[in-house]
Design a protein that fits this description.
single chain; alpha+beta; three-stranded antiparallel sheet
């Protein structure tokens, strides 16, 4: 199923699903997908500075300390992308 037509519950942690780098052409496509799911209170990454991201965890985030920032290179490696 193309990422643009993935159901809202596509974020569910299902180990039988291929990893993000096999389902999305680029990291940017994956981040855009997560951002769309953010409208339904799923976690997504906000770019807080060029090449620097912070996980937005949705409801209740204002009552917790902000998560650490990660670089684009860290996200590329974490999610298996090469570009």
């Amino acid at each position: 199923m193309p990422p643009d037509t993935a159901p809202a519950d596509a974020y569910v942690d299902d180990r039988s699903r291929p990893p993000p780098h096999q389902r999305f052409a680029t990291l940017d496509d994956y981040l855009a997908h997560l951002r769309r799911l953010g409208a339904q209170d799923y976690p997504f990454y906000d770019e807080v500075a060029p090449g620097l991201y912070r996980l937005n965890t949705g409801r209740g985030a204002a009552t917790r300390p902000p998560p650490p920032t990660v670089t684009r290179d860290q996200l590329l490696r974490r999610h298996g992308f090469t570009r």
